């Protein structure tokens, strides 16, 4: 796993969306799929590796994650943004 990888970014977005959804009491259906995609891209096989990759990415490349997250939010629907990130 690399620092600042797409997998780490997807993990971060999935966790952020989950926290926001819980705070706003909204149901989000795509989070599990996003997490599964992130784990597949990063060859992450366990939840421990998932959180390790997430924390490693946050500590190693926070500005990069923030910029990519802003780009996704500005892309309109969330799914379209994730597709753009996966395609690059």
Structural account:
By secondary structure, the protein is an all-alpha fold. The protein contains 5 helices and no strands. The protein has one domain.
Quickly describe the structure.
This protein is an all-alpha fold and 88 residues long. The chain has helices spanning 6-24, 31-41, 47-60, 62-73, 78-87. The protein has one domain (6-87).
Q: Catalogue the unreliable spans.
A: 74-88
Secondary structure class reads: mainly alpha
* Secondary-structure element series: HHHHH
Amino- and carboxy-terminal Cα gap: 18 Å
Report the radius of gyration as a whole number of Å. 12 Å
Provide the residue-averaged pLDDT: 56
Oligomer: single chain
């Amino acid at each position: 796993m690399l620092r600042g990888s797409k997998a780490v970014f997807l993990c971060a977005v999935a966790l952020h969306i989950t926290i926001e959804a819980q705070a706003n009491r909204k149901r989000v259906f795509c989070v599990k799929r996003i997490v599964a995609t992130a784990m597949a891209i990063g060859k992450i096989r366990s939840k421990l590796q998932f959180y390790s990759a997430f924390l490693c990415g946050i500590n190693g490349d926070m500005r990069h994650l923030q910029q990519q997250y802003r780009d996704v939010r500005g892309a309109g629907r969330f799914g379209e943004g994730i597709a753009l990130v996966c395609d690059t």
